[in-house]
Amino acid sequence: GIDLLIKQGEVHAMMGPNGSGKSTLAYTLAGHPAYEPTAGQVIFNGEDLLEMEADERARAGLFLAFQYPSAVPGVTLAKFLRQAINSKRKGENPEDTGIPIPMFRRLLKEKMDLLGIDHKFAGRYLNEGFSGGEKKRAEILQMATLEPKIAIMDETDSGLDIDALRVVSEGANRLKESYGMGMLVI
Questions:
Q1: pLDDT at residue number 16
Q2: How far does CA 23 lie from the centroid of its chain?
Q3: How large is the average pLDDT for residues 100-118?
Q4: Which own/partner contact pairs does 104-107 have at CB distance under 8 Å and 24+ positions apart?
Q5: Which of 15, 35, 86, 106 has the smallest number of Cβ neighbours within 10 A?
Q6: pTM of the complete model
Q7: What integer pLDDT is reported at residue 76 of this predicted model?
Q8: What is the reported pLDDT for 178?
């Protein structure tokens, strides 16, 4: 029973008690295989999102920031981000050979500077040993790097102290202002 229109640059907050389906909605929109919609439709850029696979949804410009992001030991944040960019590029053009390393480094530095993130952060293994605030900063950096059209942020405030919450919210606001990103905050 939801009708929701998110326009470019708008931020919408969805609130409700635990167990009311907010995260289920987020995972369903992102294409998690454990969730199968039984009715309705989701129109995204003129196409039915529910007819797309999860990777197609991501390439179309949908991003999900998880409530509890997983650690990926052995894969640096920089390597993960470069692979994500290359996957997006390859999906748009199968002949694409990937972003050149010097261009990626400039891009990553630019995004980290925009968000006020120390450049050393990119060399750490993805979410391994990260505090709650560092995990959320890593997701904001992913959003900045991939520049989705709409970002769904699932309980972004979970596990954050007031300083980390301020940093993450400022980062999200910078992305909204810089790229016109729409956001659904759950």
A1: 87
A2: 14
A3: 94
A4: 104/78, 107/145
A5: 15
A6: 0.87
A7: 97
A8: 80
